[in-house]
Design brief:
6 strands; 286 residues; alpha/beta; 2 domains; 9 helices; globular
Length: 286
């Protein structure tokens, strides 16, 4: 999923309003089955509860100000995209296993197939990670890629370190030094609650995005940044609030694209095709 251009390049105060209102009204409708669109009354109450003014959002006659209209439009968009497009894309372990086994036969990959960190009966290939890696390997057709860079990502200038990111990521193309693209994969098929480890995964991606934003703003270096997530139970049944925050993060520009579950099949080949264009252009220049 790429961001909706209507809601990109917006000011930080727009997102401050989105976060503050969401915090007060909640992210889901009663019963928790769908993503919430706050009403005008709920927005007024949310801002009032924070002992703040809502005059920048709502006019004295109770009509929406320009910023208020944009905020309502965003809430409608966020709810629609999550309820109707993203939720059906998310898989759980059995569906992911079937897709993994199908692609394993189809692609016959040469790269290692990593296992999850579970024990006993739940120990198995990390299905979503393997799916992502197999598609990338097939589409790259022999071009170098690091599917498990156990080192920090470094950007250089004149053979000196320019920036080094804070954390290891799950993949870099082509290498962890001066990559064209980096990505994180968050598959949580066997969790029973939306715990702190899953929440931390969201904030780790946010940290990466903020460091890449600073790199671009101050050095003009643009590195593509992707987030792959899966597990219907974890993200949809337990973590809708975090799905909303991921949509916010996407539109704030901290990640270039978020790919959900089965979406990798049709979307990832197009993404890798763009990487290859950048790679070949760089090779031609050098």
């Amino acid at each position: 999923m790429i961001p909706n251009k209507k809601f990109t390049n917006l000011s930080k105060d727009f997102w401050a309003n989105i976060r503050s209102i969401s915090q007060q009204t909640g992210y889901t409708i009663r019963g928790g089955s769908q993503i919430k669109i706050p009403t005008l009354a709920e927005i007024k109450n949310a801002i009032s509860n924070l002992k703040l003014s809502y005059s920048h959002l709502i006019n004295p006659d109770d009509s929406l100000a320009t910023l208020g209209t944009l905020i309502i439009d965003y809430y409608k968009y966020r709810a629609d995209i999550l309820n109707n497009k993203i939720e059906p894309m998310l898989m759980d372990s059995e569906e992911a296993k079937l897709l993994y086994e199908k692609l394993l036969k189809k692609y016959n990959p040469t790269i290692p197939q990593p296992y999850n960190k579970q024990k006993g009966e739940k120990k198995a290939p990390a299905y979503f990670t393997c799916i992502v890696n197999m598609i990338i390997e097939t589409c790259l057709n022999g071009i170098e890629c690091n599917y498990n860079p156990r080192e920090l990502t470094t950007i250089t200038k004149n053979d000196f370190p320019l920036r080094t990111l804070s954390r290891w990521v799950d993949g870099t193309f082509p290498t962890p030094v001066n990559p064209i693209a980096i990505w994180e994969i968050k598959e949580y098929y066997y969790t029973t609650t939306f715990g702190s480890r899953v929440a931390d995964g969201v904030y780790e991606t946010l940290l990466d995005g903020m460091e890449l934003e600073e790199l671009y703003e101050h050095e003009g270096v643009d590195i593509k940044h992707y987030l792959f997530i899966d597990s219907h139970y974890t993200w949809w049944e337990c973590g809708k609030a975090y799905l909303c925050r991921i949509i916010d993060m996407l539109h704030m520009g901290y990640v270039d694209e978020v790919i959900y579950g089965k979406e990798v099949i049709e979307r990832l080949p197009s993404i890798v095709k763009e990487w290859k264009k950048i790679y070949k252009k760089g090779k031609a220049i050098n």
